[in-house]
Write a structure and sequence with these properties.
Blueprint: H1 11-36, H2 41-71, H3 76-105, H4 113-135, H5 142-176, H6 180-212
Helix pairs in contact: 1-2, 1-3, 1-4, 2-3, 3-6, 4-5, 4-6, 5-6
Length: 215
Protein backbone atom coordinates (compact mmCIF):
# COMPACT_ATOMS: atom_id res chain seq x y z
CA UNK A 1 0.00 0.00 0.00
CA UNK A 2 1.78 3.09 -1.19
CA UNK A 3 0.30 5.49 1.35
CA UNK A 4 0.57 3.21 4.34
CA UNK A 5 3.82 1.35 3.99
CA UNK A 6 6.85 3.21 5.30
CA UNK A 7 9.86 2.26 3.20
CA UNK A 8 13.06 4.12 2.38
CA UNK A 9 11.58 4.95 -1.04
CA UNK A 10 8.17 6.08 0.21
CA UNK A 11 9.01 7.79 3.52
CA UNK A 12 9.83 11.19 1.94
CA UNK A 13 6.39 11.32 0.30
CA UNK A 14 4.57 10.43 3.51
CA UNK A 15 6.46 13.18 5.29
CA UNK A 16 5.67 15.67 2.54
CA UNK A 17 1.96 14.78 2.61
CA UNK A 18 1.96 15.33 6.37
CA UNK A 19 3.66 18.70 5.83
CA UNK A 20 1.02 19.57 3.27
CA UNK A 21 -1.59 18.63 5.86
CA UNK A 22 -0.13 21.20 8.24
CA UNK A 23 -0.39 23.81 5.49
CA UNK A 24 -4.05 22.91 5.00
CA UNK A 25 -4.58 23.17 8.75
CA UNK A 26 -2.98 26.62 8.94
CA UNK A 27 -4.74 27.87 5.84
CA UNK A 28 -8.18 26.64 6.87
CA UNK A 29 -7.89 28.06 10.38
CA UNK A 30 -6.81 31.42 8.96
CA UNK A 31 -9.75 31.25 6.58
CA UNK A 32 -12.17 30.63 9.46
CA UNK A 33 -10.69 33.53 11.42
CA UNK A 34 -11.20 35.71 8.36
CA UNK A 35 -14.84 34.65 8.17
CA UNK A 36 -15.39 35.17 11.90
CA UNK A 37 -13.86 38.66 11.72
CA UNK A 38 -15.25 39.58 8.34
CA UNK A 39 -16.68 42.87 9.54
CA UNK A 40 -13.24 44.14 10.55
CA UNK A 41 -11.39 45.10 7.37
CA UNK A 42 -7.94 45.00 8.98
CA UNK A 43 -8.44 41.55 10.51
CA UNK A 44 -10.06 40.32 7.33
CA UNK A 45 -7.01 41.36 5.34
CA UNK A 46 -4.61 39.95 7.93
CA UNK A 47 -6.22 36.52 8.02
CA UNK A 48 -6.74 36.54 4.26
CA UNK A 49 -3.02 37.08 3.82
CA UNK A 50 -2.35 34.13 6.13
CA UNK A 51 -4.45 31.95 3.80
CA UNK A 52 -2.34 33.10 0.86
CA UNK A 53 0.89 32.37 2.73
CA UNK A 54 -0.30 28.86 3.62
CA UNK A 55 -1.18 28.24 -0.03
CA UNK A 56 2.26 29.40 -1.14
CA UNK A 57 3.90 27.09 1.40
CA UNK A 58 1.78 24.21 0.13
CA UNK A 59 2.80 24.98 -3.46
CA UNK A 60 6.42 24.46 -2.45
CA UNK A 61 5.53 21.10 -0.90
CA UNK A 62 3.68 20.05 -4.05
CA UNK A 63 6.61 21.08 -6.21
CA UNK A 64 8.94 19.03 -4.02
CA UNK A 65 6.68 15.98 -4.34
CA UNK A 66 6.75 16.24 -8.13
CA UNK A 67 10.51 16.80 -8.14
CA UNK A 68 11.10 13.68 -6.06
CA UNK A 69 8.63 11.65 -8.11
CA UNK A 70 10.56 12.57 -11.24
CA UNK A 71 13.71 11.11 -9.70
CA UNK A 72 12.04 8.23 -7.86
CA UNK A 73 12.46 4.54 -8.67
CA UNK A 74 8.95 3.77 -7.41
CA UNK A 75 6.83 1.63 -9.75
CA UNK A 76 4.73 3.65 -12.23
CA UNK A 77 1.47 2.87 -10.42
CA UNK A 78 2.92 4.03 -7.11
CA UNK A 79 4.24 7.23 -8.66
CA UNK A 80 0.81 7.96 -10.10
CA UNK A 81 -0.89 7.36 -6.74
CA UNK A 82 1.44 9.79 -5.03
CA UNK A 83 1.00 12.31 -7.83
CA UNK A 84 -2.78 12.10 -7.51
CA UNK A 85 -2.55 12.65 -3.76
CA UNK A 86 -0.24 15.65 -4.13
CA UNK A 87 -2.53 17.24 -6.70
CA UNK A 88 -5.67 16.58 -4.63
CA UNK A 89 -4.09 18.22 -1.60
CA UNK A 90 -2.93 21.17 -3.66
CA UNK A 91 -6.46 21.67 -4.96
CA UNK A 92 -7.83 22.10 -1.42
CA UNK A 93 -5.62 25.05 -0.54
CA UNK A 94 -5.90 26.52 -4.02
CA UNK A 95 -9.66 26.72 -3.55
CA UNK A 96 -9.34 28.19 -0.06
CA UNK A 97 -7.23 30.94 -1.55
CA UNK A 98 -9.58 31.36 -4.53
CA UNK A 99 -12.55 31.72 -2.16
CA UNK A 100 -10.68 34.32 -0.14
CA UNK A 101 -9.93 36.27 -3.31
CA UNK A 102 -13.49 36.00 -4.63
CA UNK A 103 -14.83 37.56 -1.44
CA UNK A 104 -12.41 40.45 -1.86
CA UNK A 105 -12.73 40.92 -5.62
CA UNK A 106 -16.53 40.87 -5.45
CA UNK A 107 -16.39 43.44 -2.64
CA UNK A 108 -18.63 41.31 -0.47
CA UNK A 109 -19.28 43.50 2.57
CA UNK A 110 -20.92 40.96 4.85
CA UNK A 111 -21.45 37.22 5.04
CA UNK A 112 -24.79 35.53 5.48
CA UNK A 113 -25.32 32.94 8.23
CA UNK A 114 -25.43 30.32 5.47
CA UNK A 115 -22.00 31.36 4.19
CA UNK A 116 -20.59 31.16 7.71
CA UNK A 117 -22.13 27.71 8.14
CA UNK A 118 -20.64 26.49 4.85
CA UNK A 119 -17.25 27.92 5.85
CA UNK A 120 -17.42 26.11 9.19
CA UNK A 121 -18.18 22.78 7.52
CA UNK A 122 -15.40 23.25 4.98
CA UNK A 123 -12.86 24.12 7.67
CA UNK A 124 -13.90 21.08 9.70
CA UNK A 125 -13.39 18.97 6.56
CA UNK A 126 -9.90 20.43 6.20
CA UNK A 127 -9.15 19.56 9.82
CA UNK A 128 -10.16 15.95 9.24
CA UNK A 129 -7.99 15.84 6.12
CA UNK A 130 -5.03 17.03 8.17
CA UNK A 131 -5.71 14.27 10.71
CA UNK A 132 -6.06 11.68 7.94
CA UNK A 133 -2.69 12.63 6.48
CA UNK A 134 -1.05 12.18 9.88
CA UNK A 135 -2.21 8.55 9.83
CA UNK A 136 -0.72 7.65 6.44
CA UNK A 137 2.63 6.28 7.69
CA UNK A 138 0.85 3.74 9.93
CA UNK A 139 -2.06 2.60 7.77
CA UNK A 140 -0.65 -0.93 7.75
CA UNK A 141 -1.61 -1.17 11.44
CA UNK A 142 -5.22 -2.43 11.69
CA UNK A 143 -6.28 0.03 14.39
CA UNK A 144 -4.83 2.97 12.45
CA UNK A 145 -6.49 1.79 9.24
CA UNK A 146 -9.80 1.62 11.13
CA UNK A 147 -9.28 5.16 12.44
CA UNK A 148 -8.52 6.32 8.89
CA UNK A 149 -11.71 4.75 7.55
CA UNK A 150 -13.72 6.49 10.28
CA UNK A 151 -12.08 9.79 9.40
CA UNK A 152 -12.94 9.27 5.74
CA UNK A 153 -16.54 8.60 6.76
CA UNK A 154 -16.56 11.80 8.83
CA UNK A 155 -15.37 13.77 5.81
CA UNK A 156 -18.10 12.16 3.70
CA UNK A 157 -20.75 13.14 6.25
CA UNK A 158 -19.46 16.70 6.40
CA UNK A 159 -19.55 16.90 2.60
CA UNK A 160 -23.17 15.72 2.68
CA UNK A 161 -23.93 18.38 5.31
CA UNK A 162 -22.39 20.99 3.04
CA UNK A 163 -24.61 19.82 0.17
CA UNK A 164 -27.73 20.22 2.32
CA UNK A 165 -26.72 23.66 3.58
CA UNK A 166 -25.85 24.70 0.02
CA UNK A 167 -29.25 23.67 -1.36
CA UNK A 168 -31.10 25.49 1.42
CA UNK A 169 -28.90 28.57 1.04
CA UNK A 170 -29.43 28.73 -2.73
CA UNK A 171 -33.18 28.29 -2.34
CA UNK A 172 -33.37 31.13 0.18
CA UNK A 173 -31.05 33.32 -1.88
CA UNK A 174 -33.16 33.10 -5.04
CA UNK A 175 -36.41 33.56 -3.11
CA UNK A 176 -35.41 36.47 -0.90
CA UNK A 177 -32.45 38.44 -2.33
CA UNK A 178 -33.82 41.41 -4.32
CA UNK A 179 -30.42 42.78 -5.39
CA UNK A 180 -29.24 40.90 -8.50
CA UNK A 181 -25.61 41.90 -8.00
CA UNK A 182 -25.64 40.68 -4.41
CA UNK A 183 -27.29 37.45 -5.52
CA UNK A 184 -24.53 36.82 -8.06
CA UNK A 185 -21.84 37.50 -5.45
CA UNK A 186 -23.33 35.24 -2.82
CA UNK A 187 -24.05 32.46 -5.31
CA UNK A 188 -20.37 32.41 -6.30
CA UNK A 189 -19.23 32.40 -2.67
CA UNK A 190 -21.63 29.60 -1.74
CA UNK A 191 -20.39 27.50 -4.66
CA UNK A 192 -16.75 28.04 -3.73
CA UNK A 193 -17.36 27.19 -0.09
CA UNK A 194 -19.28 24.01 -0.88
CA UNK A 195 -16.60 22.89 -3.33
CA UNK A 196 -13.94 22.93 -0.60
CA UNK A 197 -15.68 20.02 1.11
CA UNK A 198 -15.92 18.24 -2.26
CA UNK A 199 -12.14 18.46 -2.67
CA UNK A 200 -11.59 17.20 0.86
CA UNK A 201 -13.77 14.23 -0.02
CA UNK A 202 -11.58 13.60 -3.07
CA UNK A 203 -8.58 13.23 -0.75
CA UNK A 204 -10.52 10.89 1.52
CA UNK A 205 -11.59 8.79 -1.47
CA UNK A 206 -7.97 8.37 -2.56
CA UNK A 207 -6.98 7.09 0.87
CA UNK A 208 -10.08 4.93 1.24
CA UNK A 209 -9.49 3.40 -2.19
CA UNK A 210 -6.03 2.29 -1.14
CA UNK A 211 -7.37 0.90 2.13
CA UNK A 212 -10.09 -1.11 0.42
CA UNK A 213 -7.54 -2.77 -1.84
CA UNK A 214 -6.22 -4.57 1.23
CA UNK A 215 -9.42 -6.54 1.71
Amino acid sequence: MIFGKRTSRNTPFLELFNEHGHCIGRGSQAFMLMVQNYGDEDLRAQHGQAVVEAEHAADKVTAEVHRRLHRSDLPPAAREQNRQMANALDDVLDLLQDTTEVMSLYDLRQLTPEAVRLADISVRCCGRVQHLLSLLPRLAEPEVAEAAIKTCEEIDRLESDADRVMRAAMSQLFREEPDTRELIKLKAVYEHLESISDLCEDVANLVQGRLLERF
